[in-house]
Amino acid sequence: MIDRATVDRIYAAADIVDIISDYVALKKKGVNYQACCPFHNEKTPSFVVSPSKGVYKCFGCGKGGNAVTFIMEHENVSYPEALKIVAKRYGIEVEEREQTEEDVRRNNDRESMFALNGWAADYFAKYLITSTEGRSVGLSYFAQKRGFTEATIRKFGLGFCSAVGDAMTMAALSAGYKQEFLTSTGLSIVREGDGKLRDRFRDRVIFPVHNISGRVVAFGGRTLRTDKSVAKYQNSPESEIYSKKRELYGLYFAKKAIQQQDYAIMVEGYTDVISMHQAGVENVVASSGTSLTTEQIQLLHRFTRNITVIYDGDSAGIKASLRGIDMILKEGMNVRVVLLPAEHDPDSFARAHTADQVRDYIRANEEDFLSFKAKLMLSEAGKDPIKRSAVVTDMVQSIVQIPDSIQRSVFIKDCARIMDVDEGVLIAEVARKRVQQAGGGREAEEFLRRQQALQKPQERAVDVDITKSSEAGSSVEALEYELVKYLLKSGHLSYEILEGRNVVQVNIADEIYYNLDTDNIRFISPVFQKIYDTYRQHWQELGVGVKVPEQYFVNHIDPEVCNMAVDILTSDDNLVPSKLWQQKDVHVESEVEILSNGVPKAIMLYRSKVIDRMIKVQLQRISDESLSEQEREESVKRMTELINARTKISRESQRLIL
Ligand SMILES: [Zn+2]
Predict the structure, then answer these.
(1) Ligand 1 is a single-atom ion; what residues have CB below 5 A from it?
(2) Are 290 and 244 in contact (CB under 8 A)?
(3) What are the pLDDT digits (tens) for 488-544?
(4) How far apart are CA 322 and CA 327, in angstroms?
(5) Span from the CA of 37 to the centroid of ligand 1 (angstroms)
């Protein structure tokens, strides 16, 4: 936790134009700045930065926030990490609360390890270019054998570690790095016998592994010797800063392109990624050696839901990796598969083709993963009925992983066709497996049986999804948005109503709080509730009629509140046109008129929606057979009350509309 005072200091120092300029080229336009949005692909700029308000907003994709949430979004780091990045930039010392000594030590250790890895990456890269050994062995391999250009070699930080045995270790020690961190990062190994330090990567070309924010967390070293007794690859061990299953090679360089093109290409090794980049295809990552993990998929999921896995034409590993893909399905990703022509791997294919050719080939040859798998397995099973039924079981297992029910039924149809089995059989099997997987015991099975009995067999196109809870009412959320918008934009304003013969001033914030308090309503959406609570706190301090400063929301401690506040404050709708705000004196009448209609209507609608939901809950309760007689009576009574309340509201709202 970073304390509030430090957060405030960070926000005070952060210059949003300065920070965003690091990522996109901003052009001054009037009092604001403009650019093409870094979060979605566009040709005409709709991304606007307001230095006076300290916010950014994209009018194309809707993303908006402040300087810190921009870093969060763009670097895909947590809020505290983003705060620290901004703090570091402006030389603000971050005091963190509630850190134990152990935390402090571990953080220092992590920082020391990052520092050493950064130094080592530079050292290897320099050694590749400047030493005779590096040039003749390493550089000639990268440049001639692999065809990497100087720019590519520099971009990926490729390097070479001398064959001497302890050259890197000695250089690190004399540069002041501690032995402790040489071993904890795995850069050096303690030799058995004499206990001397040796370079782990001696006599190997070096591929640094960057994490998502571009820091070097590990290295991969490849030997160029043909000697079979030497392992081809040597990798950094797991450490405080490196977990193999949590990193994807190339993601740091690919994330922007993946986001913009909304799909990622998955290849196998370091050189596949690098060659594709050099060819101009930049949305490429590799799981590098390990089979895919759930963590890696979740990492990728932050940028896209679409993955295309590329296999070598003659790869024997396809079948083994099919299992891994079930995991991708489980994360709700769309997976496609491309087979390269038999003579190619991604590396050689990229070198032999232009970026457009590579992309065209992928587009033309990619195939939905499940159809691909079904075909592959069926061709292996041949005519053997036992093997064919094993294929069906296997396919069902894959389909079961897909979280979306509509997508699932599409796949069921496809698979039924490809495998030539009855669709109804597949549907029933998938449904049964899903019940099992959901951990549903007898009740779930019973529920499923009843559901199926209710449907005629041919209508069971979409199988029953009992793992999903009922969806949140979107219109209730829309009304919560509207109410919060009235608060933020016009909570301090008042309008006049006639009560009897008297003209009464109604303050908007007062009206909203009074009404929702009456029914004891809490917002369904936590972020709206937070804005609602924050506004109330400041409103009570400042007094009725005083505008609560936007900064309280735009620079709120909760980043979700920041982004939502920017969204609301930059939303431009017909109710309160922004021009009216700038020329308040001239148009104030019509603005208040609009509000005097809109606010009570929104409150009324919201209350009736919330009551509707409560009625539904009671209805469900009453139909529950296990309810006791007394409980049922209470439920009926409560429902009657609610229905009366709803009638009253609808009468009031009719009056409003008249
Ligand atoms: Zn955008």
Answers:
(1) 37, 39-40, 58, 60-61
(2) yes
(3) 999 998 888 777 777 888 899 999 998 888 777 888 889 999 999 999 988 888 888
(4) 9
(5) 4
